[in-house]
């Protein structure tokens, strides 16, 4: 009887050890799988961010060629350093070749009597786009504010990025001739460029004068720089980000969205 009990004990012990090893192996695989999923998610977010930035640069500047658009070239280099597959990168560059045309607009909106968004739009059908934005905005308690109120919250400017074989002193003299507000020198891996500050959404006169002065126009960029910032809670920020995501995913005429939210 004792012998039989010993056999049963040994048998159950063996089964228990095997099951423990099996579950240990299963747990290890689950950990590896979870780590890989986290890595893949983070990688996808980086690629999506870079893809969106390339689209914004191409749309704003009207130039989708990295060889003549330094900002786009810089993003391409970032994508390569992030190990974006060449097939993915080529696909993105192919898509942004068909750059949309239209007039640039900025629609200022305030959310829940708190932060303000500057929604950059490129379209020939502004009324239609506004209707679509208003439909989404109702769900997030966001409303359009008057331009006069917006002007006290943001310093809005259009930058004209150009190239020319000259120094900053010469560029500053040319800025006066071209009626530009200011100019700064930009140096990066691809070379030296100049960024002329012009009237918001209306850089045409500055561009015309710069061309006459021998500059090569590379791109333009509309910026709404917050004069001050607004504090929000993590819950409010989550809701605002959902609103932004909803707008950019459903309304293709939206180029980008800037805000005056303070960093948490």
UniProtKB/TrEMBL annotation:
Superkingdom of source: Eukaryota
InterPro entries referenced in this protein's UniProt entry, alphabetically: Integrase-like_N (IPR017856), TACO1_YebC-like_2nd/3rd_dom (IPR048300), TACO1_YebC_N (IPR049083), Transcrip_reg_TACO1-like (IPR002876), Transcrip_reg_TACO1-like_dom3 (IPR026564), YebC-like (IPR029072)
SUPFAM superfamilies reported in the protein's UniProt record: YebC-like
Domain TACO1/YebC-like N-terminal: residue ranges: 27-97
GO cellular component, one term: mitochondrion
Pfam families the record matches: TACO1_YebC_N, Transcrip_reg
Residue span, TACO1/YebC-like second and third domain: 113-260
Family according to the record: Belongs to the TACO1 family.
Protein name: Probable transcriptional regulatory protein Teth514_1449
Species, as recorded: Bombus vosnesenskii
Gene from which this protein is expressed: LOC117233594
């Amino acid at each position: 009887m004792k012998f039989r009990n010993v056999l049963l004990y040994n048998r159950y012990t063996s089964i228990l050890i095997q099951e423990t090893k099996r579950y240990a192996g299963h747990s290890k695989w689950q950990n590896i799988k979870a780590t890989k999923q986290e890595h893949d998610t983070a990688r996808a977010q980086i690629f999506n961010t870079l893809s969106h930035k390339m689209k914004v640069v191409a749309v704003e500047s009207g130039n989708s060629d990295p060889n003549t658009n330094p900002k786009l070239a810089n993003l391409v280099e970032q994508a390569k350093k992030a190990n974006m597959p060449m097939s993915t990168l080529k696909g993105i560059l192919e898509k942004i070749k068909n750059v949309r045309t239209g007039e640039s607009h900025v629609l200022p909106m305030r959310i829940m009597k708190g932060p303000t968004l500057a929604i950059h739009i490129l379209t020939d059908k502004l009324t239609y786009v506004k209707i679509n934005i208003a439909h989404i905005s109702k769900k997030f308690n966001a409303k359009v504010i008057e331009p006069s109120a917006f002007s006290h919250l943001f310093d809005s400017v259009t930058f004209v990025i150009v190239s020319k074989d000259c120094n900053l002193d010469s560029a500053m003299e040319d800025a006066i001739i071209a009626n530009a507000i200011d100019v700064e020198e930009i140096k990066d891996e691809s070379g030296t460029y100049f960024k002329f500050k012009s009237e918001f959404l209306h850089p045409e006169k500055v561009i015309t004068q710069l061309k006459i002065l021998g500059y090569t126009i590379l791109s333009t960029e509309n910026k709404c720089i917050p004069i001050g910032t607004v504090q929000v809670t993590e819950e409010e920020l989550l809701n605002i980000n959902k609103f932004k995501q909803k707008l950019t995913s459903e309304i293709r005429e939206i180029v980008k969205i800037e805000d005056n939210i303070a960093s948490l």
